[in-house]
Amino acid sequence: MKKTVVSASLSLALAAVMGLSALAADAGLISPAAGNSADTAPERTYTIQVNGEDTGIQACVMVPLRAIAEKLGFQVTWSNGTVLVDNGVMHTTVTIGKDSYIVTTSNPDLVGMSAPFSLGAAPYVTDGVTYVPLGLFDALLGSKEGTIAVEGSKILIHTDSGSTELANPFTDCTTLKEAQDLAGFSITVPEASSACKETRIRVIKGSLIEVVYANGEEELCIRKGSGSGDVSGDYNFYAQTKSVTVDGLQVTMKGADGEIRLATWSSGGYTFAVSSSQGVSASEMTNFIQAVK
């Protein structure tokens, strides 16, 4: 069995109701309780003691979203104050400043969507880094016992592909050729612009290729998959949706305030998606569509 362990220092960040003190030695980890409503506090939180005296203060550990999510195989996409966390099977969209979370899944063997739940603290951004409660990853990994544990000054996150937890379906690739060989089909994408600081390539063997151009939190994601379903991984609601024709292709564009954040279409037995975290003009999105094959 393949096992991945991600460690995070307890000193990353703590969000408390009244302030910070020492962690109780037997503190439990935050985990959304089944059936919790958005205004219900989580069943398990850290309790804080001062000189051995219980303060009655509860706190949750806040961790950097992107750093941990990507270690666990999730893609993180910013979009107008919300952040989509997606690994192709499990998805959640968090809203900065809002302590309400919903986890959805594309796995037909699992319940499609959780009830809204609270984790005791809202996501926030500081120095360009987004922080979320650690309990969000517990939910995304199936809320299985032993997934998250505390050992001394470390928080351990365990993912085990041999258990009932969901394995990361993506494989990282260093070249497009490597991705194409694993996927079993080819893909054509536009050249990276001079503003692009990072290019990431991932593949789900036999079914999907993903190419991401990134500059900090700004990302352009291109996906091509076999079949005709929606492979965008974007489960946001957009105020504006329109159908357009681009070089004979019927394309659905979605966005808001005149900016396009998502385009999807199908052609030749394959399905395509281009998404922009910051939004682009319709003409810019059209150029991307024409470049993707």
TrEMBL record:
Organism: Oscillibacter hominis
Protein's UniProt keywords contain Signal: yes
The keyword Signal belongs to this UniProt entry's keyword annotation: yes
Name the record gives this protein: Copper amine oxidase N-terminal domain-containing protein
InterPro entries membership: Cu_amine_oxidase-like_N (IPR012854), Mao_N_sf (IPR036582)
Keywords from the UniProt entry: Signal
Signal peptide: 1-24
Residues in Copper amine oxidase-like N-terminal domain copies: 61-142
SUPFAM superfamilies (alphabetical): Copper amine oxidase, domain N
